[in-house]
Amino acid sequence: MSTTRLLISMLLMLSCMAAQAGPLATFSDDKIKTSVGDTVTVSVDPLTSTVTNGTSFSIDLVGLDFNNGDLDGGGINFSYDPAVVNVTSVTVDTTTWEFFSDNGVIDNGVGSVNGIQFNTFQSRTGDLTFATVQFVAVGTGVTGLGLSEYLANPFATGGSPYPGLAFAETASIAVAPIPLPGAALLFASALGIAGWFRRVRS
């Protein structure tokens, strides 16, 4: 048998053995897509709040499941109903975002804070806190919190847009009226009873 025929026979035998044994290794596109395509969410903590009119309170701007790459930083705008709440301050967490930060511009006339920015040279992944927002309740009712990306400093990883980015759409704050103190309730009840007796006697 010639050398050429011998090589062809050996190659055919190896091919048959490989086909019977199955592939030596497999790669799942699903896992790769999942690792870079999961939704990461910019949200607030707590997602919903209930407070009393006149109360000062705070919420955190947070990132959830930032596992699609190291977050370089980003920027957030948010809106609210200024007849229900006002913002008194914004404080970026400069321990985490040590390279650059900006607390943004508060406008309680229209109900917005624009340009909250944060950046780092460190590896930041997972659940993250971006900033703390201090509010005061100024009226009763419910206000949503509209979150959006500040496009002058977009969320990025390695200088590219951060994949899978989404913003929470159900954040809200409910403000309840100031409850009457117990003595005032008793006084109001007494006035009601006295009025009832007057009507009965007349």
CATH class of the domain at 68-175: Mainly Beta
Structural class: alpha+beta
Strand and helix order: HHEEEEEEEEEEEEEEH
Q: What CATH architecture of the domain at 68-175 do you see?
A: Sandwich
Quick synopsis:
With 202 residues, this protein is of the alpha+beta class.
Q: How would you portray this structure in words?
A:
The protein has 202 residues and is an alpha+beta fold. The chain has a domain at 68-175: Immunoglobulin-like (Sandwich), CATH 2.60.40. It contains three helices and 14 strands. It has a five-stranded mixed beta sheet, with no helix packed on it. A four-stranded antiparallel beta sheet has the order 6-7-4-10, with no helix packed on it. Mean pLDDT is 83; it is low at 16-36.
Give the helix/strand layout:
Elements: H1 3-21, H2 29-37, E1 40-45, E2 48-52, E3 56-66, E4 73-79, E5 85-92, E6 100-107, E7 112-119, E8 126-137, E9 141-144, E10 146-149, E11 156-157, E12 160-161, E13 165-167, E14 172-176, H3 182-201
Considering the chains and any ligands shown, give keywords for the structure.
single chain; 202 residues; alpha+beta; Immunoglobulin-like; 5-stranded mixed sheet; 4-stranded antiparallel sheet; 3 helices; elongated
